[in-house]
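Model: Ready when you are.
Researcher: Fold this.
Model:
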Amino acid sequence: MADNGNGFEPEITVFMCIYCADMAADTAGALHIQYPANVKLVKMPCTGKTDVQYILNAFEHGADGVYVVGCPIGNCHHVRGNERARVRVSRVKKLLDEIGIGSERLEMYFVSGGMGETFARVANEMTERIRALGPSPLRELQSEPS
């Protein structure tokens, strides 16, 4: 994986449902479509269970970027879980701007199980986006001596 010349390789956390998103990841694997190894997958029963605190904790524990991958709108296995997740992600994006981390470090995507190429493309796009932004501002705070 190439970096931007300064040795920075972003850490990215992905919260994903065990239905469509997990199947899309499996489809990418079955088709031998690679996505960056810096993308850490966290499987959730439904993206509707992705609490605001989980997203904030991901940043606090070293993620430079976070994204949520759920079922397509209108096709959630838990009826409206993906819609609840979309509202939470929107709320957290505002909070990230307010606290100086930046909303562009968080995103939500919707994929169906057969969309392995899309799953991999999103992983690549988020990696490039976060690489261009540089390390999370929290990294500097964590590396400062107490």
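Researcher: Now this one.
Model:
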Amino acid sequence: MPLILLIVALLLLRFFEIWKFAQLSYWWIVALMVFAFVWFEYVEKLLGWDKKKAHDEDDKRRRARVKNSFDKRK
């Protein structure tokens, strides 16, 4: 997510020609977009980070269900 925010910020700074970003080439921004695409489409899946978040959420729900079940018995 920080990468996407950086791309948006650079686009806005370049578009409105603010400070030194007025001379920034759009190719740098396009290169960041390509990097972000490759990262989110291939690298995250390769490392398994896309599934890790889903597994963590499932684990939290399971723990809450078990805790709730044991609390009702008391």
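Researcher: Key takeaway?
Model: The mean pLDDT is 89.
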